[in-house]
User: What shape does this take?
Amino acid sequence: MAKKYSSAELKLVRILCYIPLRIVMGFAGGLAWLASWLPISVVSAHRDVLLNHLICYPENSWEENRRHARRALVQTARTLASYSHLWLRPPELALNRINKIHGADAVKSAMESERPVLFLSLHQAAWEVPVLVIGQMGPAVIMYQPAEHNALDPVVKAARERTGCQLVPADGRGVRTALSAMSKGGTFGLLADHQPGGTANPSVPFFGHNVLVPGFVHKVIERFQPAIFYVHAEYLKSDLQYDVFFTPAQDEIFNADEAGTLTAMMQGLENIIRRNSDQYNWTYNRFRRGTVIRRDWYSKKNALALIERIRSGEPASDVFSQ
Assistant: This one.
């Protein structure tokens, strides 16, 4: 579920956009680092990040997952704070922070052809940046999940559309717009690591656990056979610059049944995350539901009990055996 921002939080974002970016990111990261040393019973975001690391990396020791979770929490805080600049300052400032765009020529050729193009993105590093890059390359329909009564929603939507993309909601109207664009050889993109709202969606493995995924993606691939690219950003050492990557999808994603296509899609996303897991946004309760099961791993009481079992030496693979 998308976070609902109050008007007070919107005012804070407006203030932060006038403060130098290095200071904004440093302050947010510092607060997150301090919070990561508080008891996990107090800081829910840290608890969720740590739990997700224990779920996804059972082969790592308790100490390793603890360190990775702390770094990931700090990085996510820095990223979210930086969006005050990305959303409210000219897009050129964010685009000027790009060190290199990998795979741009292949994407441009695909978008100039008559074949439709599908972008599969995820919440990796500066995940708001690729949509600005795509908009510069050509017209594209981008699906997003709006939130009612969210003070930041219109600001974020306008920011994402500034270089040429058209944002549509993840509902029936948005689906129709996306299908219409694809039928004319257009371009469509979405954040594919989101948990879809409807429980009728299929589930496939993600880090070894079945999760709900948007079945709509398979329908698009089966019907249009588009050129498919994974797209993500990756911070460089300073965090003030990043590279953007366009990676062609693996062959297994084509000409497969629904389960095969969506399994290949989630494997592609997992490969990107594993490449630099500290830069992924691990705050989502991504493993809450599969098709036939609902896992009560994230409630405070259960999460603390699960974490304590692992800290005491029980293998994480046994603890999360569902």
The radius of gyration is 19 Å. DSSP finds 13 helices and nine strands in the chain. The first strand starts at residue 98 and ends at 102. The chain has two domains: 7-89+281-319, 98-279.
